[in-house]
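Limitations
The C-alpha cells in this dataset are predictions for the assembled complex, not deposited experimental models. Users should treat interface geometry with appropriate caution, especially where small molecules or nucleic acid strands are included. An illustrative entry is reproduced here so readers can see what is and is not provided.
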Amino acid sequence: MIEIKDLRKEFVLSKQQRKELNTTDSIATAVDGISLNCQPGRVFSLLGPNGAGKTTTLRMISTIFKPTSGEITIAGVDAIKYPREARKKIGFLTGSTGLYARLTPNELIQYFADLYNVPKKEFEERKDYLYTLLDMHDFQGKRIGKLSTGMKQKVSICRTMIHDPEVVVFDEPTSGLDVITAENIIELIRSCKNDGKTVIFSSHIMSEVDLLCDDLAIIHKGKMLYNGEMSSFKKEMQSDNLTEEFIRIVKSNSAQS
Amino acid sequence: MIFTIFKKELIDTLRDKRTLMMMLVIPILIFPVLLNVFGGISASFKEKAANKVVKIGYIGEKNGYLYEKLENLPEQLGKKEIILYKDSTELKKAIQIDTLQIGLFVSPTFETHLKERKPAQVIVFFNGTEEGMRERAERYISVIEDIALQERYIEMNLKVSELTPITPKYSNVASTKEMIGKLAGGILPYIFIAFGFLGCMYPAIDLFTGEKERGTIETLLTTPVARWQILFGKMGVVVLSGVFAATAALLGLFLSIEVFNMVEDAALLDIVHEILSPKFILLLFSLLFPLIVFFAGIMIPVAIYAKSFKEAQSIITPINLIVVLPAMIGFFPGIKLTAITASIPVVNIVLSTKELIAGTLDYSLLGLSYLVMIIIAVIAVFVSYKQFDKETNIIV
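Predicted assembly:
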C-alpha cells in the first residue's frame, strides 16, 4: 500500500536555471500538496502532461528525492523517516532505466539481489522462476551491451522483481519501446496486480491506462486535478474518449490558472 | 554492502578498455619507452659528435707553430680536417653555410709574439647555432696553449711546481645515490603522481558521471543501501585504479631494468637496485595512498556534478594541470623538504620521495607530510560525500 498526504517538493533554482526558465523566482514547486492512496492488488495510474510532476512524485515515493513536506507511507513504513526500510519493499522501473552494459544478466541480477540482501536459497528460486517466466535462460551469460532492446527490458524486469517487492513503481515504463517489447511490461503489471502487489505507474499513453488501471490521478503543474476510481472517471467523462477527456481536464485547468 | 558495490564496480571497471589502457597498459610502457627513446637519442648524439670530422678553416702560415701543433693533435680530441684560407670574409661565409665548422685567423704577429714571449693572438670563428663547435675549438686551443706553456717553462728554466702555489683538490662528500636522489629523484615521484591521477580519472568519470549518463544511478538509489556506502564502494575502485596505475608504472621501471637491461652502467645499476629497495617501495606507496585518495576526492565531486562524460573530462583535465604541475617542483635541485614544503600537498610527496631516494629523509617532516595528506584526503572525501548526497546533483 502507498499512502501520500499533502506531498510537496520544491527545488532551489540556480541562476542558470532561472535564466533558462525565464523566471525571477528562486524556488520552483514541482509537486504542490498532492495526496493519494494506492491499494494492494490494484493498479494506480498517475497521468499528466510533460513537466506535470509525475516523475518527481514517483521519485519521492521511491525515496530518491526527499519531500519538502508531506507524508509517504510504503507498506506501513514511514518512507521519510525510514527510507532504507521503505526501499526494501519497493521495486522501481523507469522507461529510461539503463543497465550495466559490461555485466552479464547473471552478474547484474546477483548484484541487485545482494544489494537487497536476498537470502541465497530464495534468490536461486526467484531467479529460476523469473528466468523461466521471461525466457531469459539463453542469454543469461552474455554481456548486456550485446543484447537486443527486448532482452534488456527482460533483464530490467527481472532486476526490479528479484527481491519480490510489495510495491512496484513504474515511471513511464513503456516509453521508447516497440509494441512487442512493451507487452512484457504490460504483462508484468498484470501479474503484479494478480499477485496482490501495489502498483503505481505513470504514463501519458491512454490506451495503456485504459487497459491496466483500477484507480487514477491526473496531475498538472504539480497539482492534483482528479483522483478516483477508473470506473467513476469513465462515468463522469464529458468527452468521447479517455484521451480527449484527459486533454479537456488539463486545458480547463490551464485556463483557470 | 560497500564490498558488494566495490566488487561490482571493480569488475565493471576492469572490463572497460579505455580504463585498462590508462590504468595498466600506458603506465607499464612508459618507463621502457622513455628509457629506450632517451637512451637511444643520447647514445646516437654522443656517437655522432665523437665521429664528426670538423673542418677547420685556417688563415695563417702553413708551417707556422699553431698549424703544426693543430695538425699533430691526437684524434681522441675529435677528428678534424684543416683547410687553408686566405680571405677572412670567405672563411666566415663558409662557417655560416656549414662548409666549415671552425675558423682560425692567426695574427701576422703571432710567431714574433710567441718568440718574444708576448701573448700571441688568434681569432676563433664559430657558428653559435651549431651545437658543440665552440667547445671543440676551445679544446684544441687549450691543449696547444698547454703545450706552449710547458715549452716556455723549459725555455725559462722554471719548475711547474714553483709556479703553482695552491693545488686545490675537490672531493664530493655526497654519495652517488645522494646525487641521483637530489638531482634526478624528482622524476620518479612525478611519474607516479601523474599516473596515479590518470589512473583515477577514467574510473571516477565512468562510475559517477557514466552512471548518470547511462541512467543506472536512479535504480541504484532505490536499493536499500545508504548513499555513503555507494560512495565508498565506488571510491574504493577509483582509489584502487590510481594505485594500480602507479604500480604499473613501477612494474614498467622494474621490467626496463631487470628484463630489458636498459641501464647498462654497472655502477649506476647497483645504485638503482639500492634505491628500489622494498622499504623504499613500501614508503613510496604509503605516501602515494593518501595522495590518490585526495585525487579521488577532488575528481568525484566533479564527476557527480557533470552531466556528461565530456563535461567531466573538460573540468578534470585542467585540474590535472593544477594538481600535477606542483609535482614538477621536484625537478629543481635546490628545493628541500622543510616544514613549509612538507605542508604543501603534492609538493611534500615529491620532496619526501626525493629525500628518501637520497637517503637524507627527516622522518619528522615525513610525519608532517603524512598528516597534511591525510587531512586533505579526509576533506576531499567529505566534499565528495556532500556532493553525492545532493539529490539535484545525482539525478540528471
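Some entries come with short summary sentences. For this one: Chain B touches chain A through 23 residues (CB under 8 Å).
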